[in-house]
Amino acid sequence: MQILENVRKGRSWRSLLHLVCSRKSFAGRKTPGGASMKKIFIILLLLTSCASGGTTFKNEPDGFRGLLWGMNVKDARDLNYVNTDPRYGGIKMYTRAGDAMTIGSAKIEKIVYQFWRDRLCSVTIAVHGLDNWSGLQSATFDQFGPGSQTGLEPESYSWTGAKTSIMIQYDEGRQTGELWIGSQTLAKEMQLYEKNKASHGASNGF
Prior knowledge:
Elements: H1 2-8, H2 13-22, H3 37-50, E1 63-64, E2 67-68, E3 79-85, E4 91-96, E5 102-103, E6 106-107, E7 110-116, E8 119-128, H4 130-144, E9 148-149, E10 156-160, E11 164-171, E12 176-183, H5 184-204
Helix pairs in contact: 2-3, 3-5
């Protein structure tokens, strides 16, 4: 809640990102250098909360590979359940049978589809190795234009549009890269859920 409180107080998004990435990971240990899949998700929620309305970027998507933001999990074919992240009341993770495991020249290690309240809210794409990172970064820049540097890593960029937020980042120490694409609308709903949950918990204490 310290992070969300800082959002409400109007701290700059760069200082908020620094705060997130200086904290311990959700596994309870330090995450030197880079961001885990869960940490990237938190960072993009912060970018969403700090974004001004009406912004856009080149080829801004409204989903990923034919699956639109907000699509019900029952309407998405060929999904394989992986696990549930307990945050925000539960975010269900799926992989998709038959997914093409390349983007540009990059070989993709995994693609994970995240559903909140059974609605598609985000997708995370992971690669391993510098060559695959370079291919993923190049393809992402070609598709969406040059991103804004976040200052988290030498190779960390973000895009914030009217419908979608994107972040891409490379962890040189682990030689892993991740691309996160998520719904602005559902990110805001998730923030509201967390705020209402915290307010309800506080009122129950008195």
